[in-house]
Amino acid sequence: MLKEFNFEGFNMGLDLRQLLLDFKNGKISLEDVEKQIKLNYFEEIENSLKLDVNRKYRTGVPEVVYGKGKEINEIIGAVLKLAEKNGIALATKIDNIEKLSDEIRKYDLKNYHIKINKKAKTLIIKDKNYTIKKIGKVGVITAGTSDIPIAEEAKETLEVMGVEVIISYDVGIAGIHRLFPTLKRMINNEVCCIIVVAGMEGALPSIVSSLVDIPVIGVPTSTSYGIKITPLLTMLHTCSPGLAVVNIDNGFGAGVFAGLIAKIIYEKSII
Fold first, then answer.
1. Which band of pLDDT confidence, cut at 50, 70 and 90, is reported for residue 58?
2. Fewer Cβ atoms within 10 A, N terminus or C terminus of the chain?
3. Does 91 have pLDDT greater than 80?
4. Cβ–Cβ < 8 Å for 91, 63
5. How far is it, in rounded angstroms, from Cα 80 to Cα 112?
6. CB 198 within 8 Å of CB 143
7. What is the spatial distance between Cα 149 and Cα 155, in angstroms, rounded to a whole number?
């Protein structure tokens, strides 16, 4: 009977295990299995947020809550639901991180570890019984101190994915001599790629990619005296190969990209 339904290529979450066992034992029909899978695909919170709770099984990265513009209770509720399903969950770009820090104390979270990064404006909730599997190392560099919040967002994203982060902040081209000890330390730590966060003219990622033999991910920031798009254009127009670029202030996107590189290398190393 099980052969009638093709599960090949479909990565199930642990919450579907009982459903499959019930089907195997003849307790439910094939039609009910299909219906429950469709219903399980999204979780709805108060008719306003739909959560893709099985995203990590398709893409290797759990859904992350984008906090900008959302109410604090919506953010906490969404992150709790995702943590319940996946063991760990992250929210980014939270507008009022101070208010969230106060409000979250009202919740019964004794079974969870809570991490609030006020500089990055992120929230991580992790089930105390959930273990993050370590999958490699990534370097994160900033040109200036004003770029640190975006770098911290990338760092929090990487840590949720199980990546160890080697950081070095404020090593921009205004004092280029500061860069070389940083790169030496990252090479010694065998990072698989380097995220470089820079505003102003955005030249640092191009310099880094000209000095190392691993992928570099450039993150332009909105830190600038002039036109905010300048660092993005500089990075996109680089003549130095090996540099990929995400959008302005997208530390999360850079973290995911670097984390997937680390994940692929790790998986190949254990085969």
1. low
2. C
3. yes
4. no
5. 9
6. yes
7. 10
At 112 the pLDDT is 93
Backbone angles phi, psi at 120, to 5 degrees: -80, -15
- What are the residues whose beta carbons fall under 8 Å from the beta carbon of 155, sequence distance 6 or more? 120, 140, 165, 167, 255
pLDDT at position 142 over 60: yes
CATH number belonging to domain 136-269: 3.40.50.1970
Q: How far apart are CA 243 and CA 211, in angstroms?
A: 11
3-class SS of residue 126 = strand
pLDDT digits (tens, 9 = 90+) for 10-36: 333 435 677 788 888 888 888 887 777
The span from the CA of 252 to the CA of 216, in Å, is 15
H or E stretch covering 113: strand 112-117
- Contact (Cβ atoms closer than 8 angstroms) between residue 107 and residue 76: yes
- Cβ–Cβ < 8 Å for 183, 204: no
Beta strand pairing status for 163-168 and 136-142? parallel
Give me the residue spans of the domains in the chain. Answer: 1-130, 136-269
Rounded Cα distance between 236 and 256, Å, is 19
CA distances for 46 relative to 35, 73, 77, angstroms:
22, 11, 10
For the cut 70, the answer to whether the pLDDT of residue 143 exceeds it is yes
Placement of tokens 């370097």 in the chain? 139
Nearest to 258 by CA among 200, 197, 168: 197
